[in-house]
Amino acid sequence: xxxxxxxxxxxxxxxxxxxxxxxxxxxxxxxxxxxxxxxxxxxxxxxxxxxxxxxxxxxxxxxxxxxxxxxxxxxxxxxxxxxxxxxxxxxxxxxxxxxxxxxxxxxxxxxxxxxxxxxxxxxxxxxxxxxxx
Length: 133
Prior knowledge:
Helix content is 63%, strand content 0%. The chain is mainly alpha-helical.
């Protein structure tokens, strides 16, 4: 967010400080939503120190790395926008899925640590469990 942005006094009077700030946050949200997942992660970790899982060692496939996030996001992009499903082994598919799961936890863990927020892991797991058919 550009804190040096010039605004019109009429807009400030019409919307108030909170309204102007909310509008700027909404514009930022739209701008960031257009970015790729790796770019969004890089933006987050530029402002929030990354907190990796202490029990996942660097050689494990679920260990968080920006380069791995790009690989998995490229695969996602190919699946969604490509001309067909790419050929990928079940073990590579599982590894990508486990990596994305840990990447989400890494982001949450980092935010919780930075802002001293409680992290309810059981609740997070319950809302992310696949539904039974």
